Amino acid sequence: MIEVLHARQFPLTELVLLASERSAGKSMATAYGEKQVEAFSVERAQSCDFVLMAVSGSFSTEFSPQITGNGKTVVIDNSSAFRYHEDVPLVVPEINESAMDGKLLIANPNCTTAIAAMALWPLHQHFKLKKIIVSTYQAASGAGAQGMTELEEGTRQALEGKVFPNEVFAHPLPFNVIPHIDSFQSNGYTKEEMKVVWETQKIFGDKSLACSCTAVRIPTKRAHSEAITIETEKEVSPEAAMEVLSTAPGVQVVDNPAEKSYPMPLTATKKYDVEVGRIRRSLVFQPCGLDLFVSGDQLLRGAALNAVLIAEAKLLKMPR
Amino acid sequence: MIEVLHARQFPLTELVLLASERSAGKSMATAYGEKQVEAFSVERAQSCDFVLMAVSGSFSTEFSPQITGNGKTVVIDNSSAFRYHEDVPLVVPEINESAMDGKLLIANPNCTTAIAAMALWPLHQHFKLKKIIVSTYQAASGAGAQGMTELEEGTRQALEGKVFPNEVFAHPLPFNVIPHIDSFQSNGYTKEEMKVVWETQKIFGDKSLACSCTAVRIPTKRAHSEAITIETEKEVSPEAAMEVLSTAPGVQVVDNPAEKSYPMPLTATKKYDVEVGRIRRSLVFQPCGLDLFVSGDQLLRGAALNAVLIAEAKLLKMPR
């Protein structure tokens, strides 16, 4: 988030790093130079205009409402704590920026949802979506830095015929596929899968949107990919969809099969825009449907970039 | 195929290895001991009861009909050369064994199709499928031994920050996802994707079955996985589906989320049965639909095992 703030030249006057007592006093290299970490307190947080929360759900549940209690500090929460609260907006600025008008606590969506939403929102506006079916190809770094280490070290060991114990993932991830991200719910779906359903409906403001997801962890490092099938209300052609997507903010159409050009983690990593391609007529929803493939950097669009975009949008509406 | 013949104690009296002139005379270690490769000729092939073809489509196109021309030698072709010929049966023995009655040339289906078919056929019989939507997670060995080497060597290099040139795959596969297997067709789908559509319809004997596929190569070594969404004509519950699948031949239900048990390449590799799990009510097709996940060894069910099962079924019907 600090890197994105700096890269986008967010007009900040001071960067304050708040963490637990344990980390207080530590020095940290940032894009803004060496900074010392301070111990978190509600009062110190309230002295800032924006608080970007990269904390656990339980920490956010306790402290986010306290911080915004001063009636002026904006809290952008990356946890899932408030995403489903009716009075807390869940925002992808390119989609539902106005949902945060007059609100101080704003929830940042799940990474898989945010990436799909970039491609689906322009299509929803023009062709009205009825059904969305998503299968994901999610990178190890979605489980944090330890997930990344476990994949890299595990792969190194696997290539030598050794076994590296899995702790972050439910099973060894190197050269494997794990259809299990987050905990299982009573309906047989994982929480990660239901987040895609719930959050897409909330961000799009349409509870009637039928959506389903299979969330799968695969041995990639960064950027999530998703195979998406949609049924639309209005008739849609790949050409019409491509035209709509080619001018959509936050989207890059990468769709030239003849040149072997389509979305991939290799090219989507460290990119702000979500890559969308493999756009073709659905063979099961005709003539009102499409199949497509997306790849997006889940650490950017799915987290840091989206949080900073929320802050930028809020800043523009602040009284000067 | 030789290993599977041996493991299943196929009652063969002689194993004959036929290859090009270039390989003739070479000695090869097999499950039946050291064997010398002979130069292929139609006459030599015709001296056998069964010919298992692991050759290119063009070779099969030329020679398969010549071999069966003697009116007695059975040719089981692993290429796609004859899969869509109206008078050549495309067979998964557990599904449409009777399609090969009176036929000498029999086509072995595409690996991705065969794996999905094992899970879908029992459901089709009981609940009648209307729509099938498949997203695949396909292993490097689907592109042959060189694909496997390119993944392993490429991964080794990638871990050291080096780049290993990709030749087998369209892009580097290590830690990447490539939504491109086989060549692109004019409708925007790849041939691999259309094989799943055409072959499922042919094997199930139902041209009205709506089917779509996104075929994706991922950095795994062996066993393909597939996320599948189905719409059925009759109402279906996960429990009813599980009951049907638990007695289906060639299928192993692996579906106990509480125990972190679901299909994975790690457990499906080198297994005859296709693993089926994550069975849950579809959230887009209600109450007539399911989401499920399958993993199957594409070298066994998708190739060698299926070919040998075809031979076994033919053998049982041969005049003694």
Folded structure, characterized:
Chains A, B: Keywords: Amino-acid biosynthesis, Diaminopimelate biosynthesis, Lysine biosynthesis, Methionine biosynthesis, NADP, Oxidoreductase, Threonine biosynthesis. Chains A, B: It is an enzyme of class 1 (oxidoreductase). Chains A, B: It comes from Cladocopium goreaui. Chains A, B: It catalyses: L-aspartate 4-semialdehyde + phosphate + NADP(+) = 4-phospho-L-aspartate + NADPH + H(+). Chains A, B: This is aspartate-semialdehyde dehydrogenase. The structure is a homodimer of 320-residue chains. With 320 residues, chain A is of the alpha/beta class. Chain A has two domains: 2-108 and 304-316, Rossmann fold (3-Layer(aba) Sandwich), CATH 3.40.50; 112-298, 2-Layer Sandwich (Dihydrodipicolinate Reductase, domain 2), CATH 3.30.360. Helix content of chain A is 32%, strand content 21%. Chain A is built from ten helices and twelve strands. The first copy, chain A, has helices at 2-7, 42-46, 57-68, 93-96, 111-127, 145-159, 191-204, 238-246, 265-268, 300-316; strands at residues 17-19, 27-30, 33-39, 50-53, 74-77, 105-107, 129-137, 210-214, 224-232, 251-253, 274-281, 289-296. In chain A, the strands form three sheets. A six-stranded mixed beta sheet of chain A has the order 8-7-9-12-11-10. Chain A has a three-stranded mixed beta sheet with strand order 1-3-2, with no helix packed on it. The longest helix of chain A is centred in the middle third of the chain and has 17 residues, at 111-127. The first copy, chain A, is globular, with a radius of gyration of 20 Å. Chain A starts with a helix and ends with a helix. Chains A and B meet through strand 7, helix 6, strand 8, strand 9 and strand 11 of A and strand 7, helix 6, strand 8, strand 9 and strand 11 of B.
